[in-house]
């Protein structure tokens, strides 16, 4: 997926192999903020997240889980792995009585957008930029 982001926005994304350094991966594990999908001993996908307190003078304070990364290896796409990872986190939001589950998706990533919409996500806002 990093390759797609680089293709779409080389001004923002850069090659990273591995995408997570060992130290960062271990930090996510220690903080219990990563899910790893495994099939027959092979990592097929992962989802990392963080807890956010969203507040301002004009908004109700909300506590949400924000999906930082959701990656499924290309050869495993379309097999429900991403959906299963997101379902797990949706259940976590409910179990912890949080206010929601949020994420960002690249506007060009139509396959991901379709999956998110199928799982009940709705468009919250649109980020704009001037380069």
Number of helices: 4
Strand order of the largest sheet: 1-2-3-4
Radius of gyration: 16 Å
**Elements, N to C (H/E):** HHEEEHEH
Q: Based on DSSP secondary structure assignment, what is the total number of beta strands?
A: 4
Instruction: Give the overall average pLDDT.
Output: 90
Major beta sheet summary: 4 strands, mixed
Determine the N-to-C terminus distance: 23 Å
Principal-axis shape: globular
* Beta fraction: 25-35%
Uncertain residue segments: none
Structural class: alpha+beta
Q: Give the fraction of residues assigned to helices.
A: 25-40%
Question: Can you walk me through this structure?
Answer:
The chain is α+β, with helices and mostly antiparallel strands and 131 residues long. It is built from 4 helices and 4 strands, in the order ααβββαβα. It has helices at residues 2-8, 22-30, 81-95, 110-118; strands at 34-39, 42-56, 59-72, 100-103. The chain has a 4-stranded mixed sheet with strand order 1-2-3-4. Helix 3 links the parallel strand 3 (59-72) and strand 4. The relative contact order is 0.13.
Write the layout of secondary structure elements.
Elements (H helix, E strand, L loop, with lengths): L1 H7 L13 H9 L3 E6 L2 E15 L2 E14 L8 H15 L4 E4 L6 H9 L13
Parallel strand pairs: 3-4
Antiparallel strand pairs: 1-2, 2-3
């Amino acid at each position: 997926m990093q390759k797609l982001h680089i293709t779409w926005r080389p001004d923002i994304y850069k090659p990273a192999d591995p995408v997570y350094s060992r130290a960062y991966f271990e930090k996510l594990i220690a903080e219990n903020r990563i899910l790893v999908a495994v099939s027959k001993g092979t990592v097929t996908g992962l989802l990392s997240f963080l807890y956010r307190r969203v507040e301002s003078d004009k908004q109700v304070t909300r506590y949400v889980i924000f999906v930082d990364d959701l990656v499924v290896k290309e050869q495993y796409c379309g097999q429900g792995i991403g959906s299963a990872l997101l379902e797990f986190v949706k259940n976590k939001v409910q179990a912890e009585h949080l206010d929601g589950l949020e994420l960002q998706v690249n506007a060009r990533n139509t396959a991901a957008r379709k999956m998110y919409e199928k799982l009940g996500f709705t468009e919250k806002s649109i980020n704009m930029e001037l380069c």
